[in-house]
Fold this protein.
Amino acid sequence: MSFREKSAWITFVMLLGFGIYFAEVWDHFLHPTDPHTSHLPLFILLVVAVVIIEIVTHTIMGIRSPLEAKAPLDERERLIALRATRPAFFVLIVGAFLSVGTMHLGANTWVLAHCVLLAIWIAELTRFGTQIYYYRRGS
Amino acid sequence: MNVSPGAEIRNNIRRLRFEKAEMTQQALAERVGVTRQTVNAIELGKYSPSLEVAFRIAAVFAKPLEDVFQYRERPRARADSGWVD
């Protein structure tokens, strides 16, 4: 497995961790016990954890294969990155429009903001998932 | 790069590597400037390289491009295959 593919796998798994945040937000949306509940601490905690784990894992990978880590993307890897961007962008655009749609259903800015965040999250999962698919396929 | 459905690009990289003192995919990749996985994908016909990389591979083996890569059109479906235009 190449350095880039490992990197894509790590980022994909790390992104999945944000599912915890959206599960919490969804639960709060369905059962709003305390209107002043803030999910910001959990979000910050997840961002910090993801950044630290990404740095540590990429540093370890870089030490184990320094040449691959330093090498720029080759043409196949650039193509894979580009191919993965297309479906991710589509997901993001659809998500953005649906988020705007929630305003017409009477949703407040809190819901709108989380819908946009959700769209970004799914788009990023799509991007890295597609990259992994093409790396696995070999093309 | 994708090859059109009616065509395929074959290559002799594996044989040429063997003839060149059993050169490894990694060694070829380093000389061409791509990753080992990309050389593997090209060798297996899963990825068609750019002209630049194709020429660089040919240069490593000191062969003309046609000796390394071959472009072949697949036979088209016959006009009388039952489809109506």
